[in-house]
Amino acid sequence: MTELSAHLPQFQHGQLTENFPDTHLSNTNDNSERRRHDNSERRRNDNAESETNGQPQNNIQRVVEQDEEEDEELTLKYGAKHVIMLFVPVTLCMVVVVATIKSVSFYTRKDGQLIYTPFTEETETVGQRALNSILNAAIMISVIIVMTILLVVLYKYRCYKVIHGWLIISSLLLLFFFSFIYLGEVFKTYNVAMDYITVALMIWNFGVVGMICIHWKGPLRLQQAYLIMISALMALVFIKYLPEWTAWLILAVISVYDLVAVLCPKGPLRMLVETAQERNETLFPALIYSSTMIWLVNMAEEDPEAQRKSKNSTYNKQAPARQTQNEDAEADDGGFSQEWQQQRDNRIGPIESTPESRAAVQALPSNSQTSEDPEERGVKLGLGDFIFYSVLVGKASATASGDWNTTLACFVAILIGLCLTLLLLAIFKKALPALPISITFGLVFYFATDNLVQPFMDQLAFHQFYI
Amino acid sequence: AFFWLLSLLAASLLWSVSVQLSGREDAALLLLGAAAAVLLQELCRFACFKLLKKADEGLATLSEDGRSPLSLRQMAYVSGLSFGIISGVFSIANILADSAGPGTVGIHGDSPYYFITSAFLTMALVLLHTFWGVIFFDACERRRAGGLGLVVGGHLLTSGLTFLNPWYEASLGPIFILTLGTGLWAFGTAGGSFRNVLKCLSCK
């Protein structure tokens, strides 16, 4: 244990530089594995320096190899658990969005468009409509790219206060204003009489508890629940205000952008992650959902990273030295998380939260350093990913002629995409973009089910034939 | 579930293409489409088996004692169940949604028992998929073509029997008998026996 804590600073640094891929999805398991690899490597190096004859080195080599093999097994074993841990929140978010779309008609009514999508789709010709939607998508994506680059620049020049303030304003907007609108619409749908005083009290409580939970400390489950609710609200806004073809185009382009931004060496998200690694800081935890608790960082952030309290306690027992280091990091992270949230919220205004949330997610991998126990490490998924998955499924349920069949098909497709992404994560042990595979599957299944499967199933059901 | 959806996709593609080519829509084409769907489903079940087998081997090599944490039977059961669930849900979700809305069943001369027979048929189909999954995986594992042939044949028979709707006596009855028989066969394949049942019931 002491050996571990002594190596800790080196680890963290090494881990950061190694483990920061820009993806929204980072497997803390992988980080721990990395750590273990680093650990074993260091051990090997140290021993090699002290021993001159070959024999001890061979033993060390064998030990190292054994460590690595065990690490691999553990990765896969715990990888499956983390997949399930991610399935639940993604499913919950989608269920909330679909339930709202089906029952509250407000979110399917066309009440105008956002300023980011100025071209209307109510045109006379198909060509005009296609052109308008392409222009809309282009504007949206460029706004997102600009915001991401702005974020990276701010982060690089250490304007933490600005980012912080931005995140706080964003989360304020989301937690209070959007949930007020949502509550109002739900009341209208079910014809519930309500007075302003009760509503004010409810929204105030909801918002304040949300702010505390997300930006500061709170019970893990509550934080996760708030992050899911926020993602669902954001997805509903997207579904309402994006016209049809624009929405599908944006989904497709954003998954391509995600792939590029995370994996290209000059991509903004990757640079963000690398900068954070160099500085030994955690990135915006606020925009990432983590399935395990990292007590040091991002307690309040939107990261769904659920850090288990038990992990914290074991960790406390094990490495007091680490603790102080972590606490420093926590202070940093706390600030960042708020900033992230604000950024996200700000983007919600302009609806550019995704790039930032994604950046936040990418920033997350560094958090994994704090966990020592492989079981405690969790997987992190960016909130932007939640939002876009829910947008896809929500749009499918809102506008598909196949209704439930299409919705279900998209749901299964997205989950399978998530599974594959997590598998790739376990294999490559780098941060990976979580959007491309799932969104591709989802889009393929949506269009295929809507146009091909639906007529077939309709005819079969009409005659009550079963296949 | 994913594999079932893939098979459904392929079958619908086939059906749509055939409809477009022939220029008319009638029950014969539907029959063809349904048969193709059944065959493609079984094909995808086989693909699922291959994939799971590979994953199982991978898990076995990585585990500490050389054995995989999942047995083939568990995988067979889960795969069959997921096939059944997704097939059942696809069959019944829209019907359920419609049943919550206003309307009269069979007002145009169709059977008024549409909903309840749909429910029973779906239940039978889900159970059948589960049983077929178990039998199929076991037959593939032991390389017995007989089991494979019977599963495919059973599936085709079930689908064909549903084409006799709304003559419910002819379709529901045999389908339920088939379900029971397949269930007993799957139970036997999974290693159960009369004695096991007795032991289980007496809680030894």
UniProtKB/TrEMBL annotation, chain A:
<feature type="compositionally biased region" description="Polar residues">
    <location>
        <begin position="12"/>
        <end position="30"/>
    </location>
</feature>
<keyword id="KW-0333">Golgi apparatus</keyword>
<dbReference type="Pfam" id="PF01080">
    <property type="entry name" value="Presenilin"/>
</dbReference>
<dbReference type="GO" id="GO:0055074">
    <property type="term" value="P:calcium ion homeostasis"/>
</dbReference>
<dbReference type="InterPro" id="IPR006639">
    <property type="entry name" value="Preselin/SPP"/>
</dbReference>
<feature type="transmembrane region" description="Helical">
    <location>
        <begin position="226"/>
        <end position="242"/>
    </location>
</feature>
<feature type="transmembrane region" description="Helical">
    <location>
        <begin position="162"/>
        <end position="184"/>
    </location>
</feature>
<keyword id="KW-0256">Endoplasmic reticulum</keyword>
<keyword id="KW-0472">Membrane</keyword>
<keyword id="KW-0914">Notch signaling pathway</keyword>
<keyword id="KW-0378">Hydrolase</keyword>
<comment type="similarity">
    <text>Belongs to the peptidase A22A family.</text>
</comment>
<feature type="compositionally biased region" description="Polar residues">
    <location>
        <begin position="50"/>
        <end position="61"/>
    </location>
</feature>
<keyword id="KW-0770">Synapse</keyword>
<feature type="compositionally biased region" description="Basic and acidic residues">
    <location>
        <begin position="31"/>
        <end position="47"/>
    </location>
</feature>
<dbReference type="GO" id="GO:0006509">
    <property type="term" value="P:membrane protein ectodomain proteolysis"/>
</dbReference>
<keyword id="KW-1003">Cell membrane</keyword>
<keyword id="KW-0645">Protease</keyword>
<dbReference type="GO" id="GO:0034205">
    <property type="term" value="P:amyloid-beta formation"/>
</dbReference>
<dbReference type="GO" id="GO:0042500">
    <property type="term" value="F:aspartic endopeptidase activity, intramembrane cleaving"/>
</dbReference>
<feature type="region of interest" description="Disordered">
    <location>
        <begin position="1"/>
        <end position="66"/>
    </location>
</feature>
<feature type="transmembrane region" description="Helical">
    <location>
        <begin position="408"/>
        <end position="428"/>
    </location>
</feature>
TrEMBL record, chain B:
<dbReference type="GO" id="GO:0016485">
    <property type="term" value="P:protein processing"/>
</dbReference>
<keyword id="KW-0732">Signal</keyword>
<comment type="subunit">
    <text>Component of the gamma-secretase complex.</text>
</comment>
<dbReference type="InterPro" id="IPR009294">
    <property type="entry name" value="Aph-1"/>
</dbReference>
<feature type="transmembrane region" description="Helical">
    <location>
        <begin position="75"/>
        <end position="93"/>
    </location>
</feature>
<keyword id="KW-0914">Notch signaling pathway</keyword>
<feature type="transmembrane region" description="Helical">
    <location>
        <begin position="28"/>
        <end position="48"/>
    </location>
</feature>
<dbReference type="Pfam" id="PF06105">
    <property type="entry name" value="Aph-1"/>
</dbReference>
<feature type="transmembrane region" description="Helical">
    <location>
        <begin position="174"/>
        <end position="194"/>
    </location>
</feature>
<feature type="signal peptide">
    <location>
        <begin position="1"/>
        <end position="19"/>
    </location>
</feature>
<dbReference type="GO" id="GO:0070765">
    <property type="term" value="C:gamma-secretase complex"/>
</dbReference>
<comment type="similarity">
    <text>Belongs to the APH-1 family.</text>
</comment>
<comment type="function">
    <text>Potential subunit of the gamma-secretase complex, an endoprotease complex that catalyzes the intramembrane cleavage of integral proteins such as Notch receptors.</text>
</comment>
<keyword id="KW-0812">Transmembrane</keyword>
<keyword id="KW-0472">Membrane</keyword>
<keyword id="KW-1133">Transmembrane helix</keyword>
<protein>
    <recommendedName>
        <fullName>Gamma-secretase subunit APH-1</fullName>
    </recommendedName>
</protein>
<feature type="transmembrane region" description="Helical">
    <location>
        <begin position="148"/>
        <end position="168"/>
    </location>
</feature>
<dbReference type="GO" id="GO:0007219">
    <property type="term" value="P:Notch signaling pathway"/>
</dbReference>
<feature type="transmembrane region" description="Helical">
    <location>
        <begin position="113"/>
        <end position="136"/>
    </location>
</feature>
